[in-house]
Amino acid sequence: MIATLRAALVLLNFFVATCIFGGSVLVAAFLRVKDRPGSVYDWAPRWWGITHLFWGGARVVEHDAHHKQGAQHIFVANHLGNFDVFALAAKLPWIKFVAKAELFRIPLFGPAMLRAGMIPIERANRKAAFKSYESATERIQRGASVAVYPEGTRGYEYALRPFKKGPFVLAIQAQAPVVPVLVYGALDAQRKGEFKVHPTTLHLHYLPAIPTAGLTYDDRDALARRTYEAMAECLRTRYGVESPPYKPG
Predict the structure, then answer these.
(1) Domain spanning 2-239: which superfamily?
(2) pLDDT in tens, 78-114
(3) Beta strands 145-148 and 74-77, pairing class
(4) Which tens digits make up the pLDDT trace of 191-216?
(5) Helix %, strand %, coil % for the chain, to 5?
């Protein structure tokens, strides 16, 4: 009963927070406010995430947060559910998410995401997907960082799933360092396909940045493998969870 009520509060907060923070972004865009650190495009997504965590009873613990400092990073995270999105939105500075295009069709929420600099991706259309990564490169060149989920969709268990190579093509194209982020605890908050929300602690493990300077398109698979293996090692040593050997998606 309590878990259902908590889920209802999170859902209600989605509408309220989207109206408040999304509306702020749309007004700022209309007034041609510049997108930069500290602007509404920076703090609105952060507070949107914070409010969802609050109503969901979720606490976030960051590990080795010094690895996230600086600008123009590609944050690569495993994807387990809505709460890892809330956590990353709340904790990453001046971040632009690469998200499935369907989300951008939600009234108010979608236009606000677009004006905030988030990048829609058509996962079934490879040509369109790579065009989206070009847009992400532009955001990075302006100084922002980008968050991507190489698994492509939410999972049912903590073991890592195959990584798609698009995010690593983006990193090489932008010549931006990849910062692997291992998320643990999101499944305890809300599992894929379930409505109930349980209070939990989410752990964000920031791993050492992987440089991409000098890498070319032909290095995309090696970069994806190195990122996967770093995250799998963290998952194994910290939580005893074994992931399958690396396999490209």
Answers:
(1) Glycerol-3-phosphate (1)-acyltransferase (3.40.1130.10)
(2) 999 999 999 999 999 889 998 888 889 999 999 999 9
(3) parallel
(4) 888 899 999 999 999 999 999 999 99
(5) 50, 15, 35
